[in-house]
């Protein structure tokens, strides 16, 4: 019986480590941040170098992701939807720049 309890404990530890790893990977990839964001729309002449899921950074720190890329049929500019963390409030007079 002692062997079974040891195996169960070892299995539980392995399972807990696997779950912890999956949570870590999900948070690193930005999965599960759910309703903690708000959208901002920006227009650009060209969006070369970015795509859906690209990071939005402020002072080098990730503050959101690109969640939409559409062509504006009236201006022929690319409309980009940014989803920013609610904890980061961007002033209305801010400029958005694409850089690499």
Key features of this structure:
single chain; 100 residues; 2 domains; four-stranded antiparallel beta sheet; 1 helix
Count every beta strand, where a strand is a DSSP E run of 2 or more residues.
4
Helix coverage percent of residues? Answer: 25-40%
Low-confidence stretches: none
Shape: elongated
The Rg value, from CA coordinates, equals 21 Å
Number of helices: 1
Q: Which strand order spans the largest sheet, edge to edge or round the barrel?
A: 1-4-3-2
Question: Mean pLDDT score, rounded?
Answer: 84
- The overall number of domains is 2
Portion of residues in beta strands equals 25-35%
For the sheet with most strands, the description reads: 4 strands, antiparallel
Output the structural class: alpha+beta
Distance between the terminal alpha carbons, to the nearest Å? Answer: 60 Å
Give, in order, the helices and strands: HEEEE
Care to describe what's here?
With 100 residues, the protein is an alpha+beta fold. The chain folds into two domains: 1-32; 35-100, no CATH class. The protein is built from one helix and four strands, in the order H-E-E-E-E. The protein has one helix at residues 2-28; strands spanning 37-44, 55-58, 61-71, 78-85. A four-stranded antiparallel β-sheet has the order 1-4-3-2, with no helix packed on it. The radius of gyration is 21 Å and the shape is elongated.
């Amino acid at each position: 019986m002692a062997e079974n309890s040891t195996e169960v404990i070892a299995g539980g530890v392995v399972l807990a480590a696997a779950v912890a790893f999956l949570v870590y990977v999900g948070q690193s990839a930005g999965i599960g941040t759910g309703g903690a964001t708000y959208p901002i729309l920006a227009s650009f002449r060209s969006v070369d170098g970015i795509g859906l899921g690209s990071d939005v950074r402020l002072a080098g720190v990730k503050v959101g992701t690109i969640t939409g890329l559409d062509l504006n049929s009236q201006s022929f500019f690319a409309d980009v939807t940014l989803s920013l963390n609610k904890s980061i409030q961007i002033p209305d007079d801010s400029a958005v720049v694409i850089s690499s």
